[in-house]
Each structure stands twice: as C-alpha cells, then as structure tokens.
Design a protein that fits this description.
two-stranded antiparallel ribbon; 35% helix; Rossmann fold; alpha/beta; 8 helices; globular
C-alpha cells in the first residue's frame, strides 16, 4: 500500500524501530525488577517505548531514591549492548533521507541513545529528541511535536515510525501519520495503522522538492 500523500519529514522512534535492543533492555530491566521483587511476566512488557523514570515511578515502590534507580538502569543499559543491531534495511533507508528531513524521538537519554545508535551502525540525525528534552515522555506527544518544530514542518505533514503502544499513541496525539514497525516485537501489537516488518519491505521515493513518499 501507499500513503495517500507524500510527507515532508520522517520521525523515528529508536529502540525497536531503527535498532533492535529488546534483548539487552529486557536483561537490564529484569535484573532491576528482581531486585525489587516484581513479577517479570507482567512487568517486562510495560518497559518498552517509555522513559525509565516513568517506568520506575509507575511501580510505586516505597522508600526508593528515584534518581538513583534511574541512574542504575541507565548505567546497565549503556554497558550492555550485546545484540544491539539495526533493524533490517534501516541503515540504508535513513542514508537515503535528506539530513533535514528526518529526526529520532526516543525515550532513551542522550548517552544511551548515542551508545546504541553507534553499536547498531546508525549515524545519528541532526535532530535527536531524547528523554532529556521533554517534561513528559511518551505517550505524551511532546517529543514528536518538538522534532517537527525543529525540522521546520507541521506535524500533520510528518510520518512517525514506531513499534510500541506508547509511541504509537504519542504519534497519534501529535497529529502525525503513523506506521508500525514489527521486526523487533516480542509481544503482540494490535494497531489500526499500517505495519512494516522491516525496511527491506518498503519503497522510498525522495522528490525533487525533498518530499518523502513511502510504499509498503
């Protein structure tokens, strides 16, 4: 299928969308959850697509130092990059995009985002919106709205690439078109949006005016 119109810019989530880091993230979060006696089966599916601080805050754990817990998780994720790799076709796909026509909007911090992108061989874009840039993380639309503004385009003219429910909701709330990437999913995803297993299945046309047309 083709989107009914070309877009001015593409806005990508990072983990699970451009790169696969699911196994590494789940290893670190499993260790954290075990330290606090949480049930892994119910907890682990909730970590994807949202900021660490929001994940930890939601557990309502008594007597913890929130900043220290966030730092513990981030340190573990920065140190554990085993298995971090690009989603199939992602490196080639983003290389074809004009530099001023794409951005990454991630729930990771700047240090973690740069470590993972480097490990996966993905060159960071000029516009990288991270957990440090917003007061409220996904599913709040702030990150995507900020990325569109930084690129100089209306969010309605942007296409959001996401893999997690919280990120999809953020794209919807922002007012962007959304496509769901499923290659790195370890849990079922129910969505009404078009889906794409990986970037090898997509055809990209860059117009003379810089517009981006995607066919799935």
């Amino acid at each position: 299928m083709s989107f009914p119109r070309a877009h001015q810019a593409f806005l990508f989530d990072m983990d699970g969308t451009l790169i696969t880091s699911t196994a590494a993230a789940e290893r670190v979060w499993s260790r954290w959850a075990e330290r606090h006696g949480l049930d892994l089966e119910t907890f682990i599916p909730t970590i994807h697509g949202v900021r660490a601080i929001d994940t930890i805050r939601r557990q309502n754990l008594p007597g913890i130092d929130l900043d220290a817990e966030v730092a513990w998780v981030e340190r573990g994720e920065i140190e554990d990059i085993e298995g971090v790799a690009p989603i199939s076709g992602a490196v080639e796909f983003v290389k074809r995009l004009p530099p001023d026509r794409w951005a990454v909007v991630t729930s990771a911090t700047v240090p973690l985002a740069r470590v993972r992108l480097k490990a996966a061989g993905v060159e960071p874009p000029h516009i990288l919106i991270t957990a440090d840039d917003v007061e409220r993380g996904k599913p709040d639309p702030a990150g995507y709205l900020k990325a569109a503004e930084a690129l100089g385009f209306a969010i309605a003219d942007c296409l959001v690439f996401e893999d997690a429910e919280a990120g999809i909701q953020a794209g919807e709330a922002a007012g962007a078109d959304v496509v769901a990437i499923t290659a790195a999913r370890t849990h079922p995803l129910e969505t009404s949006h078009p889906t794409l297993k990986d970037y090898g299945e997509a055809r990209l046309e860059v117009g003379a005016d810089g517009t981006l047309a995607l066919t799935l």
